[in-house]
Amino acid sequence: MLQSDYCEEAFIACNRSYAMRKQYDEKDFAVFTSWIEKYINNRAKCDTFCNHTVGDFIEQFPRYITHLKQRTKSENRRVRRAAAVSLIVPARRGKFLPDIFQIADKLLIDEDDMVQKGYGRLLKVASQSHQQEVFDYVMKHKDKMPRTALRYAIEKMPKELKKQAMSK
Questions:
Q1: What was the pLDDT predicted at 5?
Q2: What span, in angstroms and rounded, lies between the C-alpha atoms of 86 and 51?
Q3: What span, in angstroms and rounded, lies between the C-alpha atoms of 4 and 9?
Q4: pLDDT at 88 over 80
Q5: Which of 74, 77, 153, 167 is 20 to 30 A removed from 103 (C-alpha atoms)?
Q6: In degrees rounded to 5, what are phi and psi of residue 155?
Q7: Cα separation of 79 and 46, whole Å?
Q8: In angstroms, rounded to a whole number, what is the distance separating the alpha carbons of residues 124 and 81?
Q9: Helices 97-107 and 131-141: crossing angle, nearest 10°?
Q10: What is the mean pLDDT of residues 95-119?
């Protein structure tokens, strides 16, 4: 169903894989990775599958974050985006902040706007639990960080912090 070009079918597949989360096994990561590489062909599929299925897998088996970091070097833009958006749900719970920053570092100057939006969104979600740390990260990197990623990262911050981050 993931290979379908009908988003509804892909979303059913994503929901089914997420529903199996209590039965995940470590070997599932290789399966999930192959699905991302073969069948994820748009942002909606990428985010739906990675936010929930891969994100939940990473919470159960955190040592696989290393594999996400390796995915930041992929030639495939969706694989690079997946490396970031897979941590969005755990980030909502305040988890994995050092790893989030490492992934953002690896994607910092990525030229693809879809990747920029993905890691910017990850930083935005992480800022809900770690506002000061994410703000400090943005301020440290704002001269290199593409405006697209920066704007996503600061979207939910107070107006004064946004103003500081956007100033030259």
A1: 64
A2: 5
A3: 6
A4: yes
A5: 167
A6: -50, -40
A7: 8
A8: 15
A9: 20
A10: 97
Question: What are the CA-CA distances from residue 118 to residues 81, 107, 125, 151 (Å)?
Answer: 5, 10, 11, 12
For tokens 């599958």, the residue is 49
CA distance 91 to 95: 5
pTM of whole model > 0.85?
Answer: yes
- Cα-Cα-Cα-Cα torsion 77, 50, 33, 63, nearest 10 degrees, comes to 110
Question: Mind listing the domains of the chain with CATH numbers?
Answer: 7-166 (1.25.10.90)
Give residue-wise pLDDT tens across range 143-161. 999 999 999 999 999 999 9
Q: Round to whole Å and give the CA distance between 93 and 33.
A: 24
Tokens representing residue 80 in the block: 């690079």
Contact predicate 157/128, CB 8 Å? no
Q: Which residues contact 6 (CB under 8 A, 6 or more apart)?
A: none
Q: In one letter, which amino acid is 16?
A: R
Going by C-beta distance under 8 Å and a sequence separation of 6 or more, which residues neighbour residue 48?
10, 11, 14
pLDDT the model gives residue 153: 97
Q: Is 158 left (phi over 0), alpha (psi -120 to 50) or beta?
A: beta
